[in-house]
Every structure is written in C-alpha cells, then in structure tokens.
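To fix ideas, we give here one paired sequence and structure record:
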Amino acid sequence: MYFDVGAYGSEGDSGVFKNCEFGKALNEKRLDLPPSRIVHGKLIPLYFVADDAFPLAKHIQKPFKPPSKYRTLPEDERIFNYRLSRARRTIENAFGILCVRWLSLARTMFVGPDRAQKVITACCLLHNYLTTVDKNEYVPQGFSDTVLENGSIVDGYWRTRIPLILCFAMKKASRLEEGCPKTLN
C-alpha cells in the first residue's frame, strides 16, 4: 500500500493526490508503470482505481457521473461503475484491515501533528511489512471480503470490528444519530 502522510484533513482527496509525491510523479509521467496490455483485442493502459473526487487521467479510472439528477446512466456505464466499485473494495479492505489492526488510526489522536504523522507512518509501514512477511497470520482467511463463484460478496470479518466513525464506513452517517452501536454489525 502506498501512503503519503501529512496533508490536512480539510484538504480534499484530489488536492492531496495532486500535491503528494506519487500524484506528481504520475502526472509528470515519472513512474515506471508497466506497459499497456492487449485485452480483448484492444490496447489498454494499466490504471489506478479512484472515486469521483479524483481527476480522470490516462492511468486513473473513476466512475461515470449521471448526466443529471433525474436521468440514469446508460447500461454500459452502469456496468462499468459496478465493476469499478468492486475493484474499489480491495482498497476498502486494505484501509479497513489497517485500521482494525492498528486501532490508534480508528480514533482521534490526541497528539501534535508531527507525532501523528510518525504514528500513522509507523502503522502503514508495519501493515505493509506484515502483509508481505506473514500475511496468513496478519490477514487470516475470512478477514477480508471474499467473492464467491456466483459473484456474490461475503463481507470480511474486519467490517464487524471497524468503528462506525471512520470516514469510509459503509453505513450511512445518519445511523450515528439513531444511537447505533459503535461498531458495524
């Protein structure tokens, strides 16, 4: 997992991406990316999966936006968005597992910005190390989402352990107001 620590929480995803070293390198074509591949007879560049906050670029794919509030997307664009959202589950799993394994990331840190950057960096480095060296222990079977042969998805165990207050929680924030439990069930 690539990470860049130090942007302000009030800064949007696209601004953080544009200003981080990885975003700059991607935009300036300084990354050593694998070459495009032929898929079903078409030359397709490899790309990064992003959400709607990111810019559309040669190596960034994001969902199609509906043309208006009252019109839906054509079927091929809806299918693309569905498949892209399934790919984004991989990203959600990585961040979810990171936060469940390193619970200091799931709560407000009552430390200064410099210390917070060090804590977050240490957690990310340890996460990357453990997923490489001892993945079966760090991410045991069933801990992350699983796609069954029929295409249905079984939520990973980490989703039952993640605090609801996290920004990428899958439940609506309105549940907080309804007095729901502090973890997703």
